[in-house]
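Workshop exercise sheet. Pairs work together: one partner reads the sequence aloud, the other fills in the structure field after running the prediction. Swap roles for the next sheet.
Pair: D.N. / O.F.
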Amino acid sequence: MRTTLTLSDDVASQARARSAKTRRPFKDVINEALRLGLAAMEEARPARPYRTQPRPMGLREGLSYDNVGDLLAAAEREDFK
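Structure field:
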């Protein structure tokens, strides 16, 4: 397939240098670079695990873990009904 591309000056000079170094035609160097670049774009990057830093929450003064029912009642504000 024949098409026209506009290459940035730095990309064109790198491709020409690669072409001269490997003694391969310019179009082969461009095609190889495009194949490699497009393949790299398609590869899924592994997601970084999401981590949170634990913090001590403490317990408000006057509350106790001894009676969960009282904690729930305070959280639901049953005493204000």
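Discussion prompt: Helices lie at 9-22, 26-42, 68-76. What would you look at next?
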